[in-house]
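Record 1 of the preview.
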Amino acid sequence: MAYQGWITLCVFTFTLIAIGMGKIARGVAALLGAAFLMSFQILPAEIAVRFIDFNTIGLLMGMMIVVGVLSKTGVFQYVAIRSLKMTGGNWVVTVFAITATTAILSGVLDNVTTVLLVSPIILSLADIMDFNPVPLLIAEAISSNIGGTATLIGDPPNIIIGSHANFSFIDFIINLTPITIVVFVFTIALLVLIDPNSFKIRKEEYEKILKVDENAAIKDIPTLKKALFVMGCIMVGFFAHGILHIEAAVVALAGAAALLAVIPEDGDEIIHKDIEWPTLVFFAGLFIIVGALKENGVISQLALFLGKHLQGHPLGAMLAVLWFSGLTCSFVNNIGFTATFVFVIDELAKQVGISPEPLFWALAMGACFGGNGSFLGAAANVVVADVAGRFGHPISFKDFLKTGMFSVFIALSLCSLYLIVRYKTLL
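->
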């Protein structure tokens, strides 16, 4: 490998370390890495721009606008409070209601947005009902990453994989939703069974929530109706975009633009406040760094190494991708890993001599479920920890790691069985 490849690998490694340490904002870290590579012609700017996946960035931008408008109406708080009341005071049902609501919302929206909305609700409920929210917050973070695995838009790794492999929204529903449901049920059930005292809520504490009027959470019914209609149209568009040959980003941006045009709020203010610009900058910088890895031969070298050891073993390649990505993404941000590894899959499939499709599904499961391992694995984990800390309930790295890695091994074991059964012809 030429010196450009080694320099690119060093830049990529230092970028991930900087993000993991949290000393530099992830957007700044990615931008610095990309700027360095372009400035020293390791990857010329005219080539670098080709690697930016504008479909991923456009999809995130459109959904951020729509979710931002929806969040201001109070609909998510309404759903959470209503779900709790429907449990009838049974603490096991309550835990499943909160985690299931989180998982479902993460599949429809995205996991970062979901935990931003649900975490303060859990903490408010803990204040009203006087219980320790930390175990439930960790379960919420885990549920958000599990639920986000089910759909194209639920977790950034899926957006990257879908865009790269040209998978449609319905492809994700067919291939990932069934195993996601199984993983969710097994994971939450085992967490509750192993440590039930962490989740128990006394009956008298639950009765406090019955006094809260969920209808009061709804703040703007006209805007809510418009936003729900637009969200419905976007979901239909996601299901049909493969048939219509329209990118998912176009669907999301068109829906966002239409919504901004029909609501009374200032569109410029929404664009300024509700779009997470640092996240989009992070993606752009990351795509450039990953593009440099591909352009300078790092990706092909890794693929050749894996292909050499897995040649003639398609099932082994599939399971290796699952476990390698799952364990790696427990400690390395799954966005950066996925953006890099999709190119490895392209080359690995050629080396092993199989279709890349099962390898991409293995990568999606590994990257998304593996993100539950620690704070570093997924952005949603960091968000939950930050919100909990601000409310006076800090979550230690050790506490999250203990529960998170347990959930990762459950998920990867179930996924291994799923992949073996589904692709048994590769045996």
